[in-house]
Amino acid sequence: MKKPIIIGITGGTGSGKSTVAKEIYKSIPAEKIAVIEQDSYYKDQSHLSFEERTKTNYDHPNAFDTELLLKHLKMLMNGEAIDKPLYDFEIHTRKKETVRVEPRDIIILEGIMVLVEPEIRELLDIKLFVDTDADVRIVRRIQRDITERGRTIDSVIDQYINVVRPMHMQFIEPTKRYADIIIPEGGFNKVAIDIMIAKVRDIVSKREVIE
Ligand SMILES: Nc1ncnc2c1ncn2[C@@H]1O[C@H](COP(=O)(O)OP(=O)(O)O)[C@@H](O)[C@H]1O
Ligand SMILES: Nc1ccn([C@@H]2O[C@H](COP(=O)(O)O)[C@@H](O)[C@H]2O)c(=O)n1
């Protein structure tokens, strides 16, 4: 098998990263593409109490098990399947189950810090930064964290002001400079997504001719 093309999609929380990833995924036959969420590689915290886990800074590079993510990316590049961890945002730690991901021609790696670590960045063939204004992102985050991640409005606002925002300015915003393409307004930017889909389809069809 040829080395897969790895597409990194980053941007702030609520920018539309997973929506962009989903749109690209849906447009390519499932046996050709896989999505890896960096969120799945938040460190396991099952040894800590729930109270202690709520104090973790989840917007710092150290919150991620980058070693395991790198190992898994390299396995996929070598044509080996991985058992991707699953993360539970309600209890701030990994689930017991994992999910098997087979090697594919196209791997999408999506997450807030995929351009932060040089070792990960170097593995990416195409780097996208989804650029959405902070006011829009916080509104989306409030809605999502309350409905899907078991949070209260006060906890989301407190975490955003004290941790998410300053960490975004320190770690995420500066990685825009590494992006090949900056997509304004995230998930429903049809023109940008169609251009990406055309590019990915082109890569897939050229591989089919070569194989
Ligand atoms: N361009 C957009 N316009 C309106 N809503 C959007 C847009 N892009 C994404 N969303 C919505 O915003 C929320 C967060 O998007 P998501 O892709 O999960 O962000 P991220 O993965 O960057 O945190 C989702 O409910 C999604 O449907
Ligand atoms: N236990 C956790 C783990 C992470 N977060 C927040 O998730 C954000 C990243 O995910 P997106 O889907 O929004 O990109 C990040 O900003 C962390 O603050 C959390 O709240 N709890």
TrEMBL record:
This is Uridine kinase. Its EC number is 2.7.1.48. It is found in: Cytoplasm. It catalyses: cytidine + ATP = CMP + ADP + H(+); uridine + ATP = UMP + ADP + H(+). Pathway: Pyrimidine metabolism; CTP biosynthesis via salvage pathway; CTP from cytidine: step 1/3; Pyrimidine metabolism; UMP biosynthesis via salvage pathway; UMP from uridine: step 1/1. One of its GO terms (molecular function) is uridine kinase activity. InterPro entries: P-loop_NTPase, PRK/URK, Uridine_kinase, Uridine_kinase-like. Residues 6-191 form the Phosphoribulokinase/uridine kinase domain. Belongs to the uridine kinase family. The gene is udk. Keywords: ATP-binding, Cytoplasm, Kinase, Nucleotide-binding, Transferase. One of its GO terms (biological process) is UMP salvage. GO terms for cellular component: cytoplasm. ATP binds at G11, G12, T13, G14, S15, G16, K17, S18. Pfam families: PRK. Its main location: cytoplasm. It is an enzyme of class 2 (transferase).
